[in-house]
Amino acid sequence: MKKSGSARDPLWYKDAVIYEIHVKAFFDANNDGIGDFPGLLQKLDYLEALGVTCLWLLPFFPSPLRDDGYDISDYLSIHPSYGTMEDFKTFLNAAHGRGMQVMVELVVNHTSDQHPWFQAARTAAPGSKERDFYVWSDTDRKYEGARIIFTDTEKSNWTWDPIAKAYYWHRFFSHQPDLNYDNPAVLEEVLKIMRYWLDMGVDGLRLDAIPYLVEREGTNCENLPDTHVVLKNIRAAMDENYEGRMILAEANQWPSDVRPYFGDGDECHLAFHFPLMPRMFMALRLEDRQPIVDIMRHTPEIPENCQWGLFLRNHDELTLEMVNEEERDYMYLAYSSDPRMRINVGIRRRLAPLMENNSRRIELLNSLLLSFPGTPIIYYGDEIGMGDNIHLGDRNGVRTPMQWSGDRNAGFSRAAPEMLYSPVISDPVYGYGAVNVESQDGEASSPLNWMRNMVALRKLFRVFGRGVMEFLDPGNRKILAYLRRGEGETVLCVANLSRFAQPVELNLQAYQGMRPVEMLGYVEFPVIGSQPYSLSLGPYGFFWFELQKAREQIEAQ
Amino acid sequence: MWNQVHQALNESTTRVITGFAKLVPGLVALIVAVLVSVVVARVFGFLLRRSLRGIKFDAKLASWGLSGLSEISPTGSPTLLVVRFVSWCIILVGALIGIAAFDATLTQQMVIRLFEYFPNFLVAVVLLFFGNVIARFLARGVLIGAVNMNLPYARLLSLGVKWLVIVLTSAMALEHLGIGGRIVDLAFAILFGGIVLALALAVGLGSKDLVSRSLENQTIHGKERSEEQFRHL
Amino acid sequence: MAVLDTIAPEAKERADRVGEADLVVALPSCQSRELLDSVVSSLRPVLPDLLPNGKAVFLYPDTAVASTGGNGDLPAADESLQLFPYAMLPVERYNEQSLDQGLRSLLQVGRTLGAKICVMMGSETSPDSLRNLAEPVLNDGFDLGVPLYARHKFDSLINSGIVYPLTRALYGARLHYSMAADLAISPRLAEKYLQAPHGQPDSGWITTKAVCAGLQVCQVNRGFAPAPSVSESADVSASLAQVLSALFLDAERYAGCWQKVRGSQALRTFGRPARGETENASADVHVMIETFQRGCKDLLDIWATALSPATMLNLKKLARLPADQFRLADGVWVHVLYDFILAHRQRVMSREHLLRAMTPIYLAWVASYALEVQTFSPLAVEDRLETLCAAFEDLKPYLLSRWRWPDRFNP
What we know:
The complex is a heterotrimer of chains A (557), B (233) and C (411).
Chain A: H1 12-15, E1 18-21, H2 23-26, H3 37-42, H4 44-50, E2 54-57, H5 85-97, E3 101-106, H6 116-123, E4 136-137, E5 158-161, E6 166-169, H7 184-200, E7 204-207, H8 225-241, E8 246-249, H9 255-258, E9 270-272, H10 276-286, H11 290-297, E10 307-311, E11 318-319, H12 325-335, E12 342-343, E13 346-347, H13 351-354, H14 359-371, E14 375-379, H15 437-441, H16 447-460, H17 463-466, E15 468-471, E16 479-486, E17 489-496, E18 502-506, E19 514-518, E20 523-524, E21 533-537, E22 542-549, H18 551-556
Parallel strand pairs in A: 1-2, 1-14, 2-3, 3-7, 7-8, 8-9, 9-10, 10-14
Antiparallel strand pairs in A: 4-6, 5-6, 11-13, 12-13, 15-16, 16-17, 17-22, 18-21, 19-20, 19-22
Helix pairs in contact in A: 7-8, 10-11, 10-12, 14-16
Chain B: H1 2-54, H2 57-63, H3 68-72, H4 78-100, H5 105-148, H6 154-177, H7 182-220, H8 226-229
Helix pairs in contact in B: 1-4, 4-5, 5-6, 6-7
Chain C: H1 9-18, E1 23-26, H2 33-43, H3 46-50, E2 56-61, H4 62-66, E3 81-86, H5 96-113, E4 117-121, H6 127-139, E5 144-150, H7 157-171, E6 182-185, H8 187-194, H9 206-212, E7 217-224, H10 230-233, H11 236-253, H12 255-258, E8 268-270, H13 286-298, H14 300-306, H15 309-319, H16 330-346, H17 351-356, H18 359-373, H19 378-394, H20 396-404
Parallel strand pairs in C: 1-2, 1-4, 2-3, 5-7, 7-8
Antiparallel strand pairs in C: 4-6, 5-6
Helix pairs in contact in C: 5-8, 7-11, 7-19, 13-18, 16-20
């Protein structure tokens, strides 16, 4: 039976606060050391209290797990470690019952080499329908313009398959052959997968690695026009039969290159803003707003029904693909003192260790995340300031079990510690003894409660999700000041990127007579006059002001 | 003569050594039993703590308004309190088993009796525990109610209710333990009666005031009662 | 949008038989056949004026017919007026549950019949009442008509001291009787009220729902308020707890709405206000003051879990004042209420205990108010209550800041 989506407003994703979860890392209900859907179900109360409105689940499909589930061998089932399809449906309904939406992954650039399609393809005759599901070649010299993405592990985008006696194309790991979108049967199969999950009531799909869907000789094989044809087809199929659903694009590209993925509002609803994230970190370290202002100035307008997805950290490395050479060097020097913290073109660390566990810095960055134009995405564990483990391979250091309490295994599982899919963080600063949900829950001024309050505040003002942004240009470059306008609300945000107190004078001429009311504590500040508006901010301090009509103005009306 | 002394000394030394040798296995068994019970208590305590946390025992108690528990043990949460209690019970059982290792009929009988007694003991403790929690909850409700009714001895009343429940549950607990027999029943009946009488007096004395006040209002001033002057809804 | 359809099968059958109606009126207070007959015959002449050629349906409690042993249609029924019984509790104002259930039944029948207006007549059943309430909704495009009562200065004190100022400060509408049992409701509001976004209807007062949904609400002057039934006024503490509970739950439900509201607006009011004479009643409040003083002695630690230290100190000072100087400052009273809202939200203890523990402080407010206004003219009393409302509005930032940033570390 086809179920409808759970959101009432078709533009729900604009007001959403997304929470990114590894099912395996969240909570283990059956004590096998791996998190599962029944575990996630038990923790919905926690997520509801946190205030997030949409849960983004990383891949939970059957897979050899050589790329953390992004190598899928069956798109229509649940990995047995995470539970059954019934468990998933129960979880989905419970989340909907709490007014939360659920987004799942649609990894359709490639499959696992264990997928039946690939197994059939490698044994099928060249030119046959089965063989054509993937991109084959007799030589590894085709499409040489395409760069290698996983530079640390892969030497070429082609790998020789001794069974097929041909090279197959892969943009990521060699065990992840790319699907061939020049074969119409592939798109048909992908649409079947999409309908399967949407029929179940899933509200959103994250399309993984979409710039690489199509290959053409003489190009870098990224962002090609034919890719957009595929996307438009997917979107049309979604719009045709489903209401209130959403597609989130993962395209690690410059904003101007991402812009086409929104189409005319007929491709993706949401796309990550990749270049913004490293620049937030850079601006903070440089104590200079310029990197942020620059990238936002170079961010094009997007269609009315589209939105940027914003994040500080996610399950991957802090990617530095979208900065120039010099900036990358600076970021490495600033945030990865130990070479083991680096992977591919990025830094594999969580938010709290990047900020050296300074709560004011963490709060400042989160305040930017929650007030910039776009939908904020919170990575699990960052709300309590979890740490990472750089001694684990690949990006597993930021995928450790959620720290629920000071009990054994951080309260994540009752299995023997050696059975856990990953060791828990146990160092004295970030370990589960010091950082856990239970201890932060009851403490009013804990990072967790700070996050809850801020998320509630963000949701209270729809202007954050829907309004336009306008930077102010104060003389002091350590201060980032911007206005958010729309929905009948005006919000002024001021952030001090410096580690010392800073003065600032803001030009608020256009708002003369309005009264800034600090939103966290509802404190009324002096009315804006004809002179520049003076403020002082403490180290890494930030203000969110609601600009209200002064009482006198209301009475005059 | 020297021979006799030597023999006597030898015999007594042998007796002492034999006695000691007989004692040693029992002692070792006791120590082992206690150690094992400590380990079991730890494990069980851990499991219990996990499951109580799992069902959010503390939060549930708090939501039932039974925060009184934390007053009994201000240093630990209710969960810890329960866990500690269960752990000590297990250690006690271990010690009893250890004592049973001594091959003496007397200790064995004692152990058997204690074991027979144990379930009663457990029930008694649970009774006391819940009695205490309920007493505190009721006492707060009565205190608020009595103050709202403007009864002069509100605190006394709430204290009375609290002790009434505690005494009642204590009597039930002692009954379960089989201590004291009829004397306890009798004593508690008297105590119970006393508290009820005290409560009646408290209410009576309080309402005496109320009655005289309303009579004054009605007869002397010939006015309607003061409460009727105001309509709250 | 999902609307929870909980209409009883028999009623649905009756409604289907009736087909369509323009006006649906619920008469929950007609608990006997005689009463029902007389009310129906008095209301009947109003119908043609309200709805020329319209069809009306009256709902009465199913106990009314059962009491006479008869069933089947009442003789009064004809083309323009149908009657049918419906399981309905007697509506108690202030009782969220009974009011909510009665309203829900009425609105569901109204929705099934496609009515242009639904009227709940919970306390008054006079023809004037029906006409006055229904007209603004039918003719002026209002979504909700609520009666506005004149009152003696010592009447409906919970409303004057708590409900009106608090709802006004929170939601910004100067709606004097947000818990009135008589209401006229447009289909638009009915639809909103019956919506069940998460499978369960949001309960709560329909007045709050209307104001927060931005619908048009008006007041209708209805003279002096009918006296509450005995069961309603029996126990101050219980009534207070009931009202506060409904009020505080609404505050939690509509937190997103009231946090954006500043100041307050007057509502369009129909009809001429009635005004009472100056009564020079000397207030006998010593029992109330005593209760408060007793509370101050015995309930201090309970209050301390809800109230901030500064407010506690003010209450302790108040308890030491002699009766002639006994005045509870508006600011302190407002802080008490705001602190209790927050404590209720954070569940610092059993909610029932918390709400009941507020009674002595409420009585202190009543005593202080009574002493102050005992010689006032009705106009002066209005002014005094207006000052109180202003205090609620002025201190709203305090509530907002603590709501947004809950912390036990308070002034």
